[in-house]
Amino acid sequence: MNIASIVQISIGAILINNFVLARFIGLCPFFGVSKKLSSATGMGMAVTFVLAVASTFTWIIDKYILVRFNATVLQTIVFILVIAALVQLVEMALLKYSPLLYEALGIYLPLITTNCAILGIAVINSQDNVFTGKPYTFIEGVINGIATGVGFTLALVLMAGIREKLELANIPKPLRGLPIAFITAGLMAIAFLGFSGLNFIQNSGG
Amino acid sequence: MILTPIIIVGCVGLFFGIGLGIASKKLQVHIDPRIEKIAQLLPNANCGACGFPGCGGFARQVVAGKADPSSCVPGGSKIASQIAEILGVEAKTTEPMMAVVHCKGGTNEAKERAVYDGIEDCHAAAIAGNGSKLCTYGCFGLGTCVAACPFNAIEINTNGVAVVTIEKCTGCGKCVSVCPRGIIELIPKVHKIYIACSNHDRGAKVKKYCSVGCTSCSICVKTTPSGAITIQNNLPVLDYAKSDNFIPAAYKCPSKCFIDLVKARPKANIDTKCDGCGECITVCPIKDAITGEKGSRHVINKDLCIGCGICLDSCHVHAILLWGGLGYSSSDKSKRQMS
Lengths: 206, 339
Hints:
Strand order of the largest sheet of chain B: 1-4
Shape of chain A: globular
Structural class of chain A: mainly alpha
Radius of gyration of chain B: 28 Å
Mean pLDDT of chain B: 84
Oligomer: heterodimer
CATH class of the largest domain in chain B: Alpha Beta
Radius of gyration of chain A: 18 Å
Order of helices and strands of chain A: HHHHHHHHHH
Distance between the termini of chain B: 82 Å
Number of strands of chain A: 0
Strand content of chain B: 5-15%
């Protein structure tokens, strides 16, 4: 475990393989919660938190139960089970210890359960690390989860910023609202395509 | 072999199930069941008229005793009494309110001095040259209030003026606070008449740029003897608390600045008890609406009668009654015959 691989994974998850804009995972909150900058930030934080927790638990369960008993076919169902239970737990804990944060996250928190980004990170962590060619270690998996969350937050905040400005723009009537948001998202995805030129596999040397 | 997945999924499920079960006991937060009950009653428009963040916030505050059950404006007295019943307290009755726009000068009536082609928002138009109309008091017609209304009760009509749909309006007052010109006001729903002009300019000036602008001629003041209408800053102010009859003022206005939300007022009718004292003619605000020789039965001209009902109280033999109304207008004869 060295700093280089942490940087690799972080940059990889935040920019090169941004969940929303490069992998097209977790698009529903990307459009649903990107109308206001404040709620976008809150949603980003919540998703990042759940991603970190979920990647921790699913990595442990994957490594020590599923792989060990040769039952990786059960990944999807077990991961969903774990994620749903975790989100429930987080919700209960928040309500008990931080009602303010619970209030701020509101409906978004239970909705994270159905966010495909959470299942996505669990599945990706169970595969091989694209940079090293070896399975993700525990630390790498957790870092990957957090970085993915940061990438998600970044995309969401950028989108919310643009959409707040778009509110005031003189947009042709048929394109107002969601249509222009889709076009914006498409352009942002093209822009993020530029990051795919960052190639760590050759330069890193292991 | 098939047992492995069953055992694995079963064990993982059991583990998390037990974990959640323990957690729900350990992390239990006592929530007053009344909060949920009240939250279900509320309109859930989250309009904020009560002053709390959303309907859920209001439900918590009202159970905590920090809010009055009648604070929910859209819910009205019905929901107030239901909340009060749950809490076991007395509910104060609230007067249902509605929003009205004090302007009717659209593109047909108010003259333009420029073409506004900017952001479709009244605040933006106010900054960018104070709108396109010559009148600097009236409705921009750009729909900031439309966007603010949580009940879809305001729309910009084809004439370019915001109008409130009274049936949908709950009186939450969101539009009142967003209007940059401050021409939306909440009035009691029982009053169907309001002045649709906000112009404080002098009469001669107003006439030049708006055909339905108030010229502060004060005819409305004279036709309302109780003093419920006063001219303040070149504009009549209707004092709804005095609860007066504003119908003569509305119909006598030469500029037609008033709006009467009642589509068709009832008409007065004099029956055979009339002894022809002529008292009704003297109180009637409309010239020639009641005619008749002294001593013989008087007749009401149905086309002129505005249905204000002032003559009813003046008749000492109680021969005058209001007929019809609400359902038909004198211009709609066919409907009248059918009913």
